[in-house]
């Protein structure tokens, strides 16, 4: 209790954001006043994102409107976080009111082939709701998720929200989160899922700071970079089918929005290098077009390994 009291005094805007503003946002209580307060709570992240995008677009011929991109990114982040609560209301009847889904045939045509399926995605849009949306269509997904950082470097309200997010979204999923702390040892549950030909949702867009080992070089956003390769290797070992899937959010001036799921054609190769480069190319395309969708835009410099 003393720890919570201390945190409330030090981080009250974050507490209010995670456990008051975004639950109300989730049920439709959205207003300009609330939005301004949310922006204030996320002001440090806004500055970090602005600096990151300014550096990234400094030498590019077609820069984006940085200030607008920052506002869009904060809005999408708010929607994504509010989905921890909004997901409880997603069902078969209102699925297409809340989502537009394209490319579903690419996934459906590959089911029932006695092979595991790896859906490669990124920290884009409302990535927590992918498994919930597809569950309404009878498709059981098992997301591979990082364990919550419970260290002093992650603010207490953020920690509690992340735990709550996993718990609430799990309620709506027939599949199971497979948690990993990205240690050198492969989680046995991931191996078991491959042997049982399950569908895994994998987020590969983690920079070297988070996963320093077992990476493979790629060209990403026009620079030398790298992505984690261990899960790709595991999928190749078990003859997995690889597809990329992206969850983005289309926003409107009145704060209404719609989530979009886009499933790309199968990556037609068993070459680990080509699989991960194809993933990098597809993610680059989205990050260039809509940098506000991608959470990595805030730390975009960490993906540039040309000087390392």
Q: In oligomeric terms, what are we looking at?
A: single chain
If you average the pLDDT, what whole number results?
A: 93
Count of separate DSSP helical elements: 11
Element pattern in H and E: HHHHHEHEHEHEHEEEHEEH
Detail the topology: elements first, then pairings.
Layout: H1 2-26, H2 32-41, H3 43-57, H4 66-86, H5 95-98, E1 99-102, H6 104-108, E2 117-121, H7 130-135, E3 142-146, H8 156-171, E4 178-180, H9 188-195, E5 199-203, E6 215-220, E7 223-228, H10 230-237, E8 241-251, E9 257-263, H11 272-289
Helix pairs in contact: 1-2, 1-4, 1-8, 3-4, 4-8
Short description:
Helix content is about 45%, strand content about 15%.
Describe what this molecule looks like in 3D.
The structure is a single chain. By secondary structure, the chain is of the alpha/beta class. It is 44% helix and 17% strand. The protein has eleven helices and nine strands. It is globular. The mean pLDDT is 93.
Tags for this model:
single chain, 308 residues, alpha/beta, seven-stranded mixed beta sheet, 9 strands, 44% helix, globular
């Amino acid at each position: 209790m003393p720890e919570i009291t201390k945190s409330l005094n030090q981080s009250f805007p974050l507490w209010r954001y995670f456990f008051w503003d975004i639950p109300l946002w989730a049920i439709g209580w959205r207003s300009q006043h609330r939005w301004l307060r949310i922006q204030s709570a996320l002001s440090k992240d806004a500055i970090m994102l602005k600096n990151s995008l300014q550096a990234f677009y400094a030498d590019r011929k077609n820069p984006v409107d940085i200030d607008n991109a920052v506002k869009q990114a904060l809005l999408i982040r708010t929607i994504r976080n509010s989905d921890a609560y909004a997901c409880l209301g997603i069902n078969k009847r209102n699925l297409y009111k809340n989502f537009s889904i394209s490319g579903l045939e690419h996934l459906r045509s590959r089911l029932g082939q006695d092979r595991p399926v790896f859906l490669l995605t990124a920290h884009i849009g409302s990535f927590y709701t992918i498994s919930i949306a597809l569950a309404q269509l009878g498709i059981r997904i098992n997301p591979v998720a990082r364990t919550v950082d419970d260290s002093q470097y992650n603010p207490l309200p953020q920690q509690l929200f992340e735990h709550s997010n996993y718990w609430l979204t799990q309620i709506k999923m027939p599949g199971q989160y497979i948690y990993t702390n990205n240690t050198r040892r492969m989680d046995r549950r991931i191996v078991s899922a491959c042997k049982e030909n399950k569908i895994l949702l994998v987020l590969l867009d983690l920079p070297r700071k988070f996963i320093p080992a077992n990476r493979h070089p790629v060209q990403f956003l026009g620079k030398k970079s790298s992505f984690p390769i261990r899960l790709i290797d595991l999928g190749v070992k078990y003859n997995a089918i690889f597809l990329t899937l992206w969850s983005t959010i289309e926003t409107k001036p009145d704060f209404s929005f719609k989530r979009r799921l886009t499933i790309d054609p199968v990556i037609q190769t068993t070459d680990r290098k080509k699989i991960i480069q194809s993933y990098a190319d597809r993610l680059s395309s989205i990050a260039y077009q809509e940098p506000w969708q991608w959470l990595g835009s805030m730390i975009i410099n960490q993906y540039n390994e040309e000087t390392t």
